[in-house]
Amino acid sequence: MQLVNVLRNSFLAASIPVSHAGTASTSATKDSTILRSTVSCPRCPENNCYKCTLGRETTLQAKTGGLSYVRMLIGFQLPVEASRITRCIVQLAECAEPLYFPVNVTVAPATSSAWDEVTVTAENAPDSGVPFTSVAVQSHANVGPIDVTQACKQADGGGRFSIYVGTQSGLIEIWSADAGHPALLQIGHT
Fold first, then answer.
1. Which of 9, 95, 138, 140 is deepest in the core (most CB within 10 A)?
2. Is residue 41 part of a domain?
3. pLDDT digit string, tens, across residues 143-179
4. Backbone Cα Rg of the chain
5. 26 pLDDT tier (thresholds 50, 70, 90)
6. Contact, 128 vs 112, CB < 8 A?
């Protein structure tokens, strides 16, 4: 009987994690479409696409091809210290328009989170780092979970970080935070 109790206590001790690992989740705090195009944009100041402020729109777009380069800029505030992050997964909102063709979605870190969705334009948006991941999205599907751990770990001292979501070709349009559908971030931490 003592051997059984020793084994049971050993098993229980082994099942208690050494660290207090946990999970947390948070929604994007801001988002915007950043539009860069060499054609005229009648909705923008001076018909200049680089001057468009699209942070209060109900959808976000990403498109590469033709005469435009359009990306989503999405900002987050971490609920835990970046040094404690073990994994970050972002889930974008559902597509606002069906995808009729497959598209490859890319993610790159933004060099800063010092932007405001009311005033951000292609002229004043933070620079982009090199894309660190891409995911294939099939036609008539939504974007699946994307590992953005690298970007989370690069959060500033206040726990803020931003990512650019683009495409390698084609167009994708998803619902934005202003439509009540912010991107969601699942965080694993110690």
1. 95
2. yes
3. 999 999 999 999 999 999 999 999 998 899 999 999 9
4. 20
5. very high
6. no
- Confirm whether 9 is domain-assigned: no
Please state the domain count of the chain. 1
For residue 29, what is the domain's CATH number? 2.60.120
Q: Does residue 153 fall inside a structural domain?
A: yes
Identify which has the larger pLDDT, 9 or 84.
Answer: 84
pLDDT score for 20: 61
Residue 115 lies in a domain: yes
List pLDDT tens digits, range 91-100: 999 999 999 9
In terms of residue numbers, what domain contains 52? 19-189
What is the C-alpha to C-alpha distance for residues 9 and 48, in angstroms, rounded to an integer? 70
